[in-house]
Each structure stands twice: as C-alpha cells, then as structure tokens.
Design brief:
The complex is a heterodimer of chains A (about 110) and B (about 130). Chain A contains no helices and eleven strands. Chain A is mostly beta strands. Chain A starts with a strand and ends with a strand. In chain B, a hairpin with a 5-residue loop joins strand 4 and strand 5. Chain B starts with a strand and ends with a strand. Classes of the chains: A mainly beta (about 110), B mainly beta (about 130).
C-alpha cells in the first residue's frame, strides 16, 4: 500500500498571500494524484486531478504540480473561503485509494 | 447538477448491522463507478469500497473486507453499503462519491478518484 505524507500539518498564511502545500508518496504514483478541499462540516471537494488539472469550477488561483513522488498544491492569493483542510490522494496503485493525513490551512 | 444523498446512518451496538443508501441524480448513474469513503471523528479520509458501473466488480479496503458489502441498483439510481459485524473503529461519517476510473496501465487495476461527494451520514458504533 502506498503511503501519502502531507506537510506541513498546519500552515498559517495571511489572506492575499501564497500558500504552498506538499504531498509525498512512498513510491512513484506517476501523475495519478488528486487534491481535495474540505471545510468544517462539509464533504470534500475535488480540486485537482492528474496532479495538475483543475476540476470543473475550480478557480485558477489553485494549481497543482509534480510527478513521481513529490507533489505541490499552490494557492496563489488566498481568499477567506480557502481556509480549510486539504488532502492529497493517489490513484496509481489501486485499490486501495490512499489519502494523505491532511494539511490544515489557517488564517495567520 | 450532480446530487448524492446518503441515508441510513445511526447508532448501533458492536457486532450489529446497518445498511447505508446513497440516492444519486444529475448524471447517468449506471455509467459511473461509485465508492464509499469514511471519516472518523476528527480524522482524515479513508476509502472503504468501490463498485463498477455495472456492479460486476467490487473492491474493498482490508479493514472492512468480509464484513461490508457494496451493491447498487441502477434502476433506482441508488448505491448501498451493507455493514455487518460492526466495530467501534467503524464509527465515522460515511460519504458516497461518484468515482472516475482511470486506466493507469494495461496490466493493472484501473485507478480511481472522486469527483462528487454526498454530505455524508454518521454511523456510531457503541454500546
């Protein structure tokens, strides 16, 4: 089973600034990686798939990059609605689908 | 608009059973795989099970294999999860998710990610 590790666990950033979240896979997952956003009390929402393709309706300030074992989610200019928990998920070696433990993005 | 509405959660004693349902609308249900993903209180996401569009292929996490059964009724646009022999560690919010299958390589099981999620239903296993 591939283990996904996200860092940092918590990231404090001011509105308007850039946020960079990292996700590492225990072995290569090629570009078969997705990112999700989850706000308190809500279901997760798909942001990115294929490591860098934005899902339908996702603003351009969200971008994904990386391949193999190292991935990054960048939010270029944080809006108030972006403060949430973010999860990465690999789908290269499936089943099982495996998620990272999450990064909480909080207001600085 | 894609909508997924889970139901069937509740309080159950250890060793008991529960059946979750997920009513789908806004897309051609039979054309898509579907999955269940759970989230224990204050914890991260854990994939539980998936089923192909036809229902002919099913997949399970090791943690639920032999205890949970996923199924679907394409005539009713509904996904199910039958949960037996429930344990305290099964306590979680259970989400159903529309599943996008990706061919990763010709010789391996396709991969899958989740493009739409329901709001979830809480299952609590406690005496």
């Amino acid at each position: 089973e591939i283990v996904m590790t996200q860092s940092p666990a918590t990231l404090s950033v001011s509105p308007g600034e850039r946020a960079t979240l990292s996700c590492r896979a225990s072995q290569s997952v090629s570009s078969n990686l997705a990112w999700y956003q989850q706000k308190p009390g809500q279901a997760p929402r798909l942001l990115i798939y294929g490591a860098s393709t934005r899902a339908t309706g996702i603003p351009a300030r969200f971008s994904g990059s990386g391949s193999g074992t190292e991935f990054t989610l960048t939010i270029s200019s944080l809006q108030s609605e972006d403060f949430a928990v973010y999860y990465c998920q690999q789908y290269n070696n499936w089943p099982p689908a495996t998620f990272g433990q999450g990064t909480k993005l909080e207001i600085k | 608009e894609v909508q997924l509405l889970e139901s069937g959660g509740g309080l159950v004693q250890p060793g008991g059973s529960l059946r979750l349902s997920c009513a789908a609308s806004g897309f051609t249900f039979s054309s898509y795989a579907m999955s269940w993903v759970r989230q224990a209180p204050g914890k991260g996401l854990e994939w539980v099970s998936a089923i192909s569009g036809s229902g002919g292929s099913t997949y399970y996490a090791d943690s639920v294999k032999g205890r949970f059964t996923i199924s679907r009724d394409n005539s009713k646009n509904t996904l199910y999860l039958q949960m037996n022999s429930l344990r305290a560690e099964d306590t979680a919010v259970y989400y159903c998710a529309k599943t996008i299958v990706v061919v990763v390589a010709a010789t391996t099981t396709p991969g899958a990610y989740f493009d739409y999620w329901g709001q979830g239903t809480l299952v609590t296993v406690s005496s």
